[in-house]
Structures are given as structure tokens and as C-alpha cells.
Specification:
The N terminus is likely disordered. This protein is flat. With 434 residues, it is α+β, with helices and mostly antiparallel strands. The strands form 2 sheets. The protein has a 7-stranded antiparallel beta sheet. Strands 7-6-5-4-11-2-13 form a 7-stranded antiparallel beta sheet, with no helix packed on it. The longest helix has 42 residues. Strand 6 and strand 7 form a beta hairpin. The chain starts with a helix and ends with a helix.
Length: 434
């Protein structure tokens, strides 16, 4: 190709690309003849500017190409992720092939807050053997409560109590037969997924009914009990057993959250409480998930806490925080065990949310995940809109009469609704300390 033609093509390309980098409007091709022995970079072209401008245009063009390449790579990665998620959705929509098939747990420690699926009330999809073990634990718990009622009825000689106890004992016996029948069916492979779901619904419905009947029966024992002398018990790791506080938290620029807690769950005790607001499911969360240490989340920002509580004993824990510099402190059994700063600094806790005990929320008031559920007992959950002093926290941990009650939320049966078989029992920890 003649040098003049090559020069023409090169300069036309540069000018066209330069125009394309600046706007996407109509373009023109300018071709100028240049002598063979002329320095192309030093030659002056009509409307083309100096050599420095041409060099700048080339560099700008190169940068634009690199940016476009990066954008394309990002789009490819997004398409790959969407394809993977679509495949998961399609696989989950297929019927299960057997009663022992379980739903795979997610790899992330917390679900994305934007998830629209609300699994509140869904049945736990644990493997059959684990489910039967959980049912056995629940039945044993019900039997223990009936034995306590027997003791109470012998002392008070109540005919009505004895009658109700006999009815409940019969129901528990029937329920045990159902569980045994289900075990036999599983061993013989007779249950298909639909029948298994129906059986599970029937058994758990009966369990909920029994819990309610026993709770009503126990009510006669605690009519004279102060409203704060109770504990919540979460015996199983499910996505339907929880308690809900009837009122929301106000806007807070500082807080103290304290409670008595008892658990021997492993790995991880789960989520003692979670507070979600519109647009942020992790506004305020206390969670110990898997083999990770316990964490406090504020506006999805995380601090690791030094608590060690899964020894089956009662422990008193407190977390204080202030929005100024995000300073926090953690206390166990009245002693400070950790502190830090820069935890969601200058972010006030937002109002108009939902406060749940025993479950981690992925959507406002729902989206529970059984793997993150709290297993154990919880009591005296109090909230203040200020930072408590070490002395006040010590009074709380030692059940002193000087212990303050929460000015935002004070522990009371009248402020909490219980769902899914979580139960209220007489509180033990302070009685053991005194």
C-alpha cells in the first residue's frame, strides 16, 4: 500500500476514534496526503490540533477501551451468577425424591437482606433422623412439664387439673404412637414426599396444640407470679419457633441490651434476638452462627464479642453502644470482657422496626432460617436508650434489688407474644444466685 494511503487510513482512524470517544453523533472522515519523508506525529492537519492533542486522544481512546473491557467482564460475571441462581431455583422447585432428602444450607453466615422470600412458618427441612430426634426431645419436654403439673395437683388436690392432665397424657401417648408409626414407614420406605409433608404438618400441629393446652394448665400455677419472673424456652432449632415483642424500638443514639441466657447448643447458640427495620434486616442483631464467635450487628456492621456461654449454665450478658465513634462494651456475668470502637459510628438505631427473640430476620418480621435459630433459654431481656454504668450491670448480673429495669423495654409477659411452640417457664437463674 502506498505510504500516502496508509497515512490517510491511520489519520482517518484516529480522528474517527477520537470523535467516537467524545460523542456518538455523526462522524466525518478526513483524508490528507502527506509526503513520504514527513514526520507524521509532527505534521499539522486541518482541524486535528497539535501532536500533543493527537497523543492525548490516543491515550483517552486506550483508557476507554480498557473501561469497556472491564464492563464486559463485569457483565459476564453477573450473567454467570444469575445463571447459577436460576439453576438453584429450578432445582428447588422440583419435588423431593425421598423423605430423607434435605434442603442444602447456604454457605453465607447471613442471608442477603434483599431476599423477598419469607419462610416464617415453614417447616424445618432437617433430615428425617434429626427431625425424629427433635420430636423426641419435644415429647420429653412435654412429659417433664406434665410431671411438674402432677406434683402441683397432688399438693392442691384439684380435680379439674387431674382431669386435664389425664387428657394431655393420653394425647402425648397418641403422639408417640404417630412418631413410632412414622419411623416404621421411613424404614420401610413407604412415605412419599407428599405424605411425609402431611404427616409432619399433623404431628407439629398436635405439638403446638399440646404446648398451648399445657401452658393454659400451667397458668393456674403462675397467676400470682410477678409478670417479669419468667423465661422463654426454645428447645428445637426450627424456623417457626420464636417470640415477638409487641412494640418497636424508638430512635436511639445509644443503647444497652442485657439478658440472662442459657444454652449448650453446638455449633453456635443461634440468634438470641434480631431487630429489623424497613430496608435493613440487620439493624440490630446478636448472633452466634456455626463455629463463628458471637457477633453484634448494627446496620450490617459487625463486631466480634468475647462471650462463652454454650456450657448449659445461666449467664448474664450485656452489650452497650453509643453512636459517637461507635464505641461498644461487652459484659459477661457482671465483668467487662471486651470493648471496641468504630461500630456503625454516627448511625442512630432506627425506629418502626420488628424485634424478634429466637430468630434472625432476613425480611421485616420473617425470613427465618432454622440454621440460625436460637436453642436454649432466655430471660430478663431489657433495653435502655443509654449506656449503663459498670455498677448497674453488676447489679443486674447479681440479681440485686438495685438492678434497673429497661426504660425502653422492660421484661414482662404482657409485652411478648410466643409462637410455634416456644414456651414460658418460671425463671430460675436469680433464684439459684440468691
Amino acid at each position: 500500500m502506498p505510504a500516502g494511503a496508509a497515512c490517510c487510513l491511520f489519520l482517518a482512524s484516529v480522528l474517527w476514534l477520537r470523535a467516537g470517544a467524545q460523542s456518538f453523533g455523526q462522524t466525518r472522515f478526513v483524508c490528507t496526503s502527506v509526503p513520504v519523508d514527513t514526520d507524521l506525529c509532527a505534521s499539522s492537519l486541518p482541524g486535528s490540533g497539535t501532536a500533543e492533542e493527537l497523543q492525548s486522544a490516543v491515550l483517552q481512546l486506550r483508557e476507554t477501551v480498557l473501561q469497556q473491557k472491564e464492563t464486559i467482564m463485569n457483565h459476564k460475571e453477573t450473567i454467570r451468577e444469575l445463571t447459577t441462581k436460576l439453576g438453584r431455583c429450578e432445582s428447588q422447585s422440583l419435588p423431593e425424591t425421598g423423605p430423607s432428602e434435605s434442603k442444602a444450607a447456604g454457605g453465607a453466615s447471613r442471608k442477603q437482606t434483599g431476599s423477598s422470600k419469607n419462610t416464617m412458618g415453614d417447616l424445618s427441612r432437617a433430615p428425617a433422623a434429626e427431625t425424629l430426634s427433635q420430636l423426641g426431645q419435644t415429647l420429653q419436654s412435654l412429659k417433664t412439664r406434665l410431671e411438674n403439673l402432677e406434683q402441683f395437683s397432688r399438693i392442691n388436690s384439684s380435680g379439674q387439673t387431674n382431669h386435664l392432665k389425664d387428657i394431655l397424657q393420653t394425647k402425648i401417648d397418641d403422639l408417640e404412637k404417630q412418631v413410632l408409626s412414622r419411623v416404621n414407614s421411613l424404614e420401610e420406605g413407604k412415605l412419599n414426599p407428599k405424605n411425609e409433608s402431611e404427616e409432619r404438618n399433623k404431628i407439629e400441629s398436635t405439638l403446638t396444640s399440646l404446648h398451648q393446652r399445657i401452658s393454659d394448665l400451667e397458668k393456674g400455677q403462675k397467676d400470682n407470679r410477678p409478670t417479669d419472673k419468667f423465661q422463654l424456652t426454645f428447645p428445637l432449632r426450627t424456623n417457626y419457633m420464636y417470640a415477638k415483642v409487641k412494640k418497636s424500638l424508638p430512635e436511639m443514639y445509644a443503647f444497652s441490651v442485657c439478658m440472662w441466657i442459657k444454652s449448650n447448643a453446638s455449633p453456635g447458640v443461634g440468634t438470641p434476638f434480631s431487630y429489623a427495620v424497613p430496608g435493613q434486616a440487620n439493624e440490630l442483631v446478636l448472633i452466634e452462627w456455626g463455629n463463628n464467635p458471637m457477633e453484634i450487628l448494627i446496620n450490617d456492621k459487625v463486631a466480634k464479642l468475647p462471650f462463652v456461654i454454650n456450657d448449659g449454665k445461666w449467664h448474664h450478658i450485656c452489650i452497650t453502644w453509643t453512636t459517637r465513634d461507635g464505641v461498644w462494651e461487652a459484659y459477661q456475668d457482671g465483668t467487662q470482657g471486651g470493648h471496641g470502637e468504630n461500630l456503625a459510628p454516627y448511625h442512630p438505631i432506627k425506629p418502626q422496626g420488628v424485634l424478634v427473640l429466637g430468630q434472625e430476620q432476613d425480611t421485616l418480621g420473617g425470613g427465618f432460617d432454622a440454621t440460625q435459630a436460637f436453642v436454649g433459654e432466655l430471660a430478663h431481656f431489657n433495653v435502655w436508650d443509654r449506656k449503663l454504668s459498670p455498677g448497674e450491670i453488676y447489679h443486674l448480673a447479681t440479681c440485686s434489688t438495685k438492678a434497673p429495669a429497661g426504660n425502653v423495654l422492660a421484661w414482662s409477659e404482657t409485652t411478648i407474644d410466643v409462637y410455634g411452640g416456644a414456651t414460658k417457664w418460671t425463671f430460675e437463674a436469680c433464684r439459684q444466685l440468691n
